[in-house]
Specification:
Chain lengths: 80, 80
């Protein structure tokens, strides 16, 4: 089974990487950009009996390792 | 308009960050993980007249700055 975990900084947390990319895009002539935020997308292949079991396990991975709950939010999507 | 750009290393390109996370998950007791790949998810807010225009502009951003075409693939999704 395949899981997609998207991890992003919470609203209000400064995103210097996003700011740098925003600035670089403006310097390249892209004037219509209003905001850029950069996060991680983690693809996990795992063995699981069901979607529910996979989701539970991947959420535990996110809580324990993949995301920092103080400054980051995450979403989990399971593909079969 | 909002655009989501997902950037991942191409198949066959070594992903040491993914390997490290895979190893860390195993050490935490997650034994069902078969593979981990880590990419970037870039969220862009931009002004555009249409979805087509936004998609064209964001693809150009990806080609010129956001992705390295030698080792990375990307996908673009436009949300209204």
């Amino acid at each position: 089974m395949k899981a997609i975990v998207n991890v992003h900084l919470k609203k209000g947390v400064l995103d210097p990487q996003g700011k740098a990319v925003h600035h670089a895009l403006e310097n390249l002539g892209f004037k219509n950009v209003e905001d850029v935020r950069i996060g991680k997308q983690i693809l996990i292949e795992l063995k699981a009996q069901s979607v529910e079991e996979a989701e539970k396990e991947v959420k535990e991975m996110a809580d324990r390792l993949l995301a920092n709950p103080v400054i980051e939010n995450y979403t989990v999507e399971i593909l079969q």
